[in-house]
Design goal:
Length: 348
C-alpha cells in the first residue's frame, strides 16, 4: 500500500505543498497535506458499499492558510483555551495572544502549528510530518520539535501518533481539529447523528468557555451521552452550559483514564449506516458540534454551514496549566509528549 503523492498548491515562501494519499485493501482512502499536517479527506464506504468523504475541508492548499474553522489541522503547541491568555510556570509569567476575547485559543490564529509547513516523510502505509518551532515562539517557553504520523490499516483504522519535545519545561497539548460528517462532508447538519461518550463527567465552563475548575457529573443533564443519543435532541436546551457555547463545545472527562489506548466515543449516521469509533491515550475530549461554522465554500461544490460537522478533539483539559487539579500538560527536557488517537470506521 504505497502512498500516492500529488501536488496540492504552493506555500507563501514558494515551497510546493503536496497531498499524500493512503489506500487500504477495502478501498478506504485518507489524504493528508503539509499545511498544518492537515487531514484533508477520509473516504469510507456506507452500508451498501458506496464511498463518501466524511471530513470537511478544502480542495486547495491555499485555503488551509486561511481556515478560520481549523478544518482538519493539527493544533499546537497548545490546543483549546488558556484563560486570560496567560500562565505561570516555574515562577515565570508568560503572556500569549488574546485571540478569543481575553483568552487564548489554539495558541495563535496566524502563527500556530495549524498554519505551518510540516516536512513530510511518506512510508509504505503511513506519512510522518515533522516541525521545528523556534525558542519561545508565540509566548510558549522553549524550542520545540513535533512529529505526527498518520497510518491506515486494513481494519479501517486511521491512527494518529503524536510526539513532541522541548528544551525547556513548557505546555505541549496537541490535537487534530477534523470535522466529521458520516453522511458525507457535503450532507448538511450532524444533529441527526447518534453519539455515545464513555465519559460520566465533564468540565463546566464560563461564558468565555474557560473551565471553572469543577468536574461535574453529566447524569440528568443534556451533557449525558453515556447512553447513545441524538446530538440534536437537546443541543438547544435551556441549559446554561449549552447557552454559553451555542450548543456542545465542552471538554468531557474520559472514564478510567490511565494513559492506555481506550475507546471513548462511537458516532453513528442514521441514513448511510456509517459509524466511527474513537480511541485515545489522553484524558479528555472536546466534543464540538460545529455551532460557529459560518457559511463557507468547501470541497467540490459544498457549502458548509452551522453544525455541518462535529469534532472530537482528544486533549488535556482546557486551561489545565491554570487548574492544578486537572491532569498536567507540562513537558520538556527528558519528559517528552507522546499520545495516540485512533479513528475506526465501519458500516452496518
Amino acid at each position: 500500500m504505497a502512498v500516492r503523492i500529488s501536488s496540492f498548491g504552493t506555500f507563501p515562501d514558494g515551497r510546493e505543498v503536496k497531498l499524500y494519499t493512503m489506500e487500504n485493501k477495502n478501498g478506504m482512502r485518507v489524504a493528508v497535506t503539509n499545511i498544518g499536517a492537515a487531514l484533508v479527506r477520509v473516504e469510507v464506504p456506507d452500508s451498501r458499499g458506496r464511498m463518501a468523504d466524511v471530513v470537511l475541508g478544502f480542495d486547495r492548499a491555499e485555503d488551509y492558510l486561511v481556515n478560520g474553522c481549523f478544518f482538519g489541522a493539527v493544533i499546537g503547541p497548545n490546543a483549546n483555551r488558556i484563560g486570560k491568555a496567560a500562565f505561570c510556570l516555574d515562577g515565570t509569567e508568560y503572556s500569549l495572544a488574546a485571540n478569543d476575547g481575553v483568552n487564548n485559543l489554539h495558541s495563535d490564529r496566524n502563527l500556530g502549528w495549524h498554519k505551518r509547513f510540516w516536512e513530510a516523510d511518506p512510508g509504505e502505509e503511513s506519512v510522518t510530518f515533522r516541525l521545528e518551532d523556534g525558542p519561545d515562539n508565540m509566548g510558549f517557553p522553549g524550542a520545540k520539535t513535533a512529529e505526527v504520523t498518520y497510518s491506515l490499516n486494513d481494519e479501517n483504522e486511521l491512527r494518529l501518533h503524536y510526539h513532541a519535545a522541548s528544551d525547556k519545561r513548557t505546555i505541549l497539548n496537541l490535537t487534530n481539529h477534523s470535522y466529521f460528517n458520516l453522511e458525507g462532508h457535503d450532507s448538511g447538519s450532524i444533529e441527526g447523528h447518534e453519539l455515545w461518550l464513555g465519559a460520566s463527567c465533564y468540565t463546566p465552563a464560563d461564558a468565555g468557555s474557560i473551565p471553572t475548575g469543577e468536574i461535574a457529573g453529566v447524569e440528568g443533564t443534556p451533557m449525558d451521552f453515556t447512553a447513545p443519543g441524538k446530538i440534536g435532541a437537546q443541543i438547544d436546551a435551556e441549559f446554561p452550559q449549552l447557552q454559553f457555547a451555542g450548543g456542545y463545545d465542552h471538554n468531557w472527562v474520559i472514564d478510567g483514564w490511565d494513559g492506555t489506548l481506550r475507546r471513548f466515543a462511537t458516532v453513528k449516521a442514521p441514513v448511510s449506516g456509517r459509524f466511527m469509533e474513537v480511541y485515545t491515550t489522553l484524558p479528555g475530549v472536546q466534543f464540538y458540534a460545529g455551532n460557529f461554522i459560518q457559511e463557507e465554500k468547501g470541497k467540490g461544490a459544498a457549502v458548509y454551514r452551522k453544525r455541518g460537522g462535529l469534532c472530537l478533539e482528544t486533549q488535556y483539559f482546557p486551561d489545565s496549566v491554570n487548574k492544578p487539579a486537572f491532569p498536567p500538560c507540562i513537558f520538556g527536557g527528558e519528559k517528552e509528549y507522546d499520545s495516540v488517537t485512533v479513528y475506526r470506521f465501519g458500516a452496518q
